[in-house]
Design goal:
The protein has 696 residues and is of the alpha+beta class. The chain folds into six domains: 77 residues; 101 residues, PAS domain (Beta-Lactamase), CATH 3.30.450; 141 residues, Beta-Lactamase (2-Layer Sandwich), CATH 3.30.450; 104 residues, Beta-Lactamase (2-Layer Sandwich), CATH 3.30.450; 62 residues, no CATH class; 152 residues, Histidine kinase-like ATPase, C-terminal domain (Heat Shock Protein 90, 2-Layer Sandwich), CATH 3.30.565. The protein has 21 helices and 24 strands. The strands form five sheets. It has a six-stranded antiparallel β-sheet. It has a six-stranded mixed β-sheet with strand order 18-19-21-22-24-23. Strands 2-1-5-4-3 form a five-stranded antiparallel β-sheet, sandwiched between helices. A hairpin with a 4-residue loop joins β6 and β7. The protein is elongated.
C-alpha cells in the first residue's frame, strides 16, 4: 500500500513538470523559430521524454494497484471458504474483520461487529474469559490454544477450541491477533459417550452371572468380575494387572495357556486337552473337566472365549466366560440312564407310539408305529406332524372322519381320547391319546398310542354277526311266514278278478281306480317277494357257491341284460370299473346287489341324470362306489337308510318302493364279510353308496 502511494505521488509530480515545460514551450515558440536555435529541438525532445516517462510510471502504478487489489480479494476469498470461524482484532481488542463462517455461526453481519469489543457482543462471563486470554496473548506474543465456550446464533453454547496468533505492525510491535474457532461439541459428546460406554461395559462384565475375565493385548488381566471371584476365591485386587497366565492358577494350580489363549489355534490340534471344542467364527466354545485341587473337587466347566478389537479393527485383548455345569452333568447322566430305560420300553411295546410337542412336531416314535402305518423313515425324519398326518390319512379308510377327529383332539388340549381307526388294508386300530402337562400346567404336547385289534374285532364282528343273523333270520322267517299266510290267500283272487273287471268297465274314473288297485296288488306282491328274498339271504352266510369273477365284466353283463338306460326318467348308468379287478362272490347275489342299488339310484335321480359305478382295489378287498346325482339324503339319517322298510321321505307314498332294497344290499354285503355305507352332502346333492367285497 505504501509503494502504491509513492508511485501515485511521483506520477503527479512528473505530470506537473511536463505540463509546465509544455506551457513554456508554447509561449516561446515564435522567438525560438526565429532564432533557429537547436534549443527548441532539445526542449521538445525533453518534453516528449518526460511525457513518456510519466505514461510508464502511470501504467506501473495501475499494475501495483491491481496486484494489491487481487491479493486482498484472494485473501478474503480464502478466508470465506474456510468452514471454521475466523476473526482478527486490533491491539485494543476491537474486532477488525471476520470470515463468512464466523458471521453465519454468530448470526451477525460484519457491519454490526467491526470496531466493537467482546463486552459489546458477548455475555459477561464469556467476554471476561476472552479478554483475559487476549491480555495473556499480548503479554506473551505468539500462538495460544485453549478450550472454551462459544455462543452460536441459535442461542446455544457449544464447546470449542480457540487457536489464536498475534500479528505485527510495520514497526515490529504487536498490532493485534487472528483467531480460528474449532467446534468440538460433538467430539466432546463422543468422548463422554465412549466413557459412558466403557463404564456400562465394565458394569455388564462385573454383574454377568457367568464367571468372566478380560485381558489386554499383553495378556494382563484388566477385568475380573464378581462371579469369577466366587468361583475361584480370588479377589480382583489380587489379580487385576497381572500377566504371565496368572488367571490359570486358580483352575489348574499352574501358569499355563487356557481357552482364552487358544483363540487363534486350530481346534483339531487341541482335542487331547479339550475333547469337546467348537469354533464359530472367531469364538471358541468348550466343555471340559477341571481337575480337583486340595481346596476344591473336580468340576465340569462350560466356557467360551473371543477376541476384542478396537474401532479400527486392531486386536486389543480377549474375554472368557465360564459356567460351572457339574450339577447339570450329574443330572444329564441320570437322564441318560432314564432315557435308555424309556427308549427300551418304547421299542418293546406292542403298541405303536407317537409323541409330538406343543407345535405338533414329532419328538418320538417307536418301531411298532412305523409298522402299523407303513410310514417311511423320510416322513419321520422330516419331523412334521402335518406330513405324518397326511400319510396317515392316505392309510385311513375314511380320511375325512380321521382328519376331523385328530383336529378336534388337538383343539381340546386337556382331553384324552379313545376311538377306533380303520385302515384301508382292513386293519382296525384302537387309538388312544393323552396330553402332556407338567406340574405347573404347561402344555408340552401329546402322546398317541395305536394297538392293532383287527383279530379281536374280526372275532367279535363274526360273533355279533352270527348272533344278529340268527336273531334276524328267526324274526324274518316268522314274519314272512305270517305275511305269506295273510297275503297269498287274498292276492290270488285279486290277480284273477281285477283284469276281468277292468275289461267290463267303461267309465274312465272307474278305470283309473281299478288301475290303482291293480298297482297296489303288484306292490304288495313285490313287497312279499322282497321280504322272502331278505329272509332267504339271512338264512345263510353264503347262499351259494363263491366264485372268482371279474367285477367290470359282471357289471357290464348286468347292464347289457337289464339296460343301461332307465326309461322311466331317462337316467343313464355309466360303468367306470377298470377291467382286471377280481372279487370272490356269489354271482346271483352280486346281481341282486347291483339290481337294488341301481334301481334305488334311478328312482331318486333327476330327469336325465347319470349313475356312475367305480371300484378301487385294496390289499385284500375291493371298494365299490355307486354314485347318483339325485335328491340326496340328510347326513343325520345316513346310517338308517339300510334298515328294513326305511324311506327317506315318509310323506311320499311311493308305492313302487317297498323299503327293503337297501336292507337286502346290506345283507348281501354282510354275507361276503364286507361293509356298506352311504355318503351325501345333503339334500339335493346326490348319494354315494360304497361297499367292500373280498378278493380272496
Amino acid at each position: 500500500m505504501r509503494t502504491t502511494t509513492k508511485l501515485i505521488i511521483a506520477n503527479g509530480m512528473l505530470a506537473l513538470a511536463s505540463a509546465g515545460a509544455l506551457a513554456l514551450l508554447l509561449d516561446s515558440r515564435e522567438p525560438l523559430r526565429q532564432a533557429g536555435s537547436p534549443v527548441a529541438v532539445l526542449l521538445a525532445a525533453l518534453i516528449c521524454g518526460m511525457l513518456a516517462i510519466n505514461l510508464l510510471l502511470l501504467r506501473k502504478t495501475r499494475g501495483f494497484e491491481n496486484a494489491e487489489t487481487n491479493s486482498l480479494r484472494l485473501l478474503r476469498t480464502l478466508m470465506d471458504t474456510i468452514p471454521c470461524p475466523i476473526y482478527y482484532k486490533d491491539v485494543d481488542g476491537r474486532y477488525l474483520g471476520f470470515n463468512k463462517a464466523y458471521e453465519s455461526f454468530v448470526g451477525l453481519a460484519q457491519e454490526r461487529m467491526i470496531g466493537r469489543t467482546s463486552r459489546d457482543l458477548w455475555p459477561k462471563d464469556l467476554a471476561e474469559t476472552y479478554e483475559q486470554q487476549d491480555r495473556a496473548l499480548r503479554e506473551h506474543p505468539g500462538t495460544q490454544i485453549y478450550e472454551g465456550a462459544f455462543l452460536y446464533a441459535d442461542g446455544n453454547r457449544r464447546d470449542v477450541i480457540f487457536h489464536k496468533s498475534t500479528f505485527l505492525s510495520e514497526h515490529g510491535s504487536v498490532a493485534g491477533s487472528v483467531g480460528v474457532i474449532f467446534d468440538i461439541t460433538e467430539r466432546k459428546a463422543a468422548e463422554q459417550e465412549i466413557k459412558n460406554s466403557n463404564q456400562r461395559l465394565h458394569d455388564i462384565i462385573e454383574f454377568l452371572p457367568d464367571a468372566t475375565f478380560v485381558v489386554d493385548g499383553q495378556g494382563r488381566v484388566i477385568a475380573w468380575n464378581n462371579s469369577i471371584e466366587e468361583m475361584t476365591g480370588v479377589k480382583k485386587e489380587e489379580i487385576v494387572g497381572q500377566g504371565d497366565f496368572a488367571y490359570a492358577l486358580p483352575f489348574y494350580g499352574a501358569r499355563r495357556p487356557i481357552l482364552i489363549d487358544l483363540i487363534d489355534e486350530d481346534p483339531d490340534t487341541l482335542i487331547a486337552d479339550y475333547p469337546f471344542l467348537k469354533r464359530e467364527g472367531r469364538n471358541l466354545f468348550t466343555q471340559t473337566l477341571i481337575p480337583a485341587t486340595p481346596e476344591r473337587a473336580s468340576r465340569y466347566i462350560w466356557g467360551t472365549a473371543a477376541p476384542l478389537f478396537d474401532n479400527c479393527g486392531n486386536r486389543v485383548g480377549a474375554i472368557e466366560s465360564m459356567r460351572d455345569i457339574t450339577d447339570y452333568k450329574r443330572v444329564e447322566d441320570e437322564l441318560r440312564v432314564t432315557n435308555l430305560l424309556q427308549s427300551t420300553q418304547l421299542e418293546c411295546s406292542i403298541d405303536g407310539i407317537l409323541a409330538v410337542d406343543a407345535q405338533a412336531r414329532i419328538v418320538s416314535y417307536n418301531r411298532r408305529f412305523k409298522e402299523i402305518f407303513q410310514v417311511s423313515q423320510s416322513v419321520l425324519d422330516a419331523g412334521s406332524d402335518d406330513a405324518m398326518l397326511r400319510h396317515a390319512m392316505e392309510q385311513a379308510e375314511r380320511p375325512g372322519e380321521f382328519l376331523q377327529a385328530v383336529q378336534r383332539i388337538y383343539r381340546q388340549r386337556h382331553d384324552t381320547s379313545r376311538d377306533e381307526l380303520r385302515l384301508k388294508g382292513g386293519a382296525v386300530i384302537d387309538r388312544y391319546s393323552a396330553p402332556m402337562f407338567d406340574a405347573d400346567g404347561r402344555y408340552y404336547g401329546r402322546v398317541w398310542y395305536f394297538r392293532d385289534v383287527s383279530e379281536q374285532k374280526r372275532a367279535e364282528e363274526v360273533r355279533l354277526r352270527l348272533e344278529a343273523q340268527r336273531h334276524h333270520s328267526q324274526m324274518m322267517e316268522s314274519f314272512i311266514t305270517q305275511l305269506g299266510h295273510d297275503l297269498r290267500t287274498p292276492l290270488t283272487p285279486l290277480f284273477a278278478l281285477i283284469p276281468l273287471i277292468r275289461k267290463k268297465v267303461v267309465d274312465p274314473d272307474l278305470v283309473m281306480m281299478i288301475d290303482i288297485c291293480s298297482q297296489s296288488v303288484v306292490t304288495v306282491r313285490e313287497l312279499t317277494e322282497k321280504a322272502l328274498k331278505l329272509v332267504s339271504l339271512s338264512a345263510s352266510t353264503a347262499g351259494g357257491v363263491l366264485q372268482q369273477v371279474d367285477l367290470a365284466e359282471e357289471v357290464a353283463g348286468y347292464l347289457v341284460e337289464n339296460g343301461a338306460h332307465f326309461d322311466g326318467n331317462g337316467v343313464y348308468c355309466e360303468n367306470g370299473i377298470e377291467p382286471g379287478i377280481a372279487v370272490l362272490v356269489v354271482p346271483d347275489q352280486l346281481k341282486e346287489l347291483f339290481n337294488n342299488l341301481l334301481s334305488n339310484a334311478a328312482r331318486h335321480s333327476h330327469q336325465g341324470g347319470v349313475i356312475s359305478i367305480r371300484a378301487e382295489r385294496g390289499q385284500d378287498k375291493v371298494t365299490v362306489a355307486v354314485q347318483d346325482q339325485g335328491v340326496g339324503v340328510d347326513p343325520t339319517v345316513l346310517e338308517q337308510i339300510f334298515d328294513e322298510f326305511f324311506k327317506v321321505d315318509e310323506s311320499r307314498h311311493d308305492l313302487g318302493s317297498p323299503g327293503l332294497g337297501l336292507a337286502i344290499c346290506r345283507r348281501i354285503v354282510a354275507n361276503h364279510q364286507g361293509t356298506i355305507w352311504a355318503e351325501s352332502d345333503g339334500k339335493g346333492r346326490g348319494l354315494t353308496v360304497r361297499f367292500t367285497l373280498p378278493i380272496q
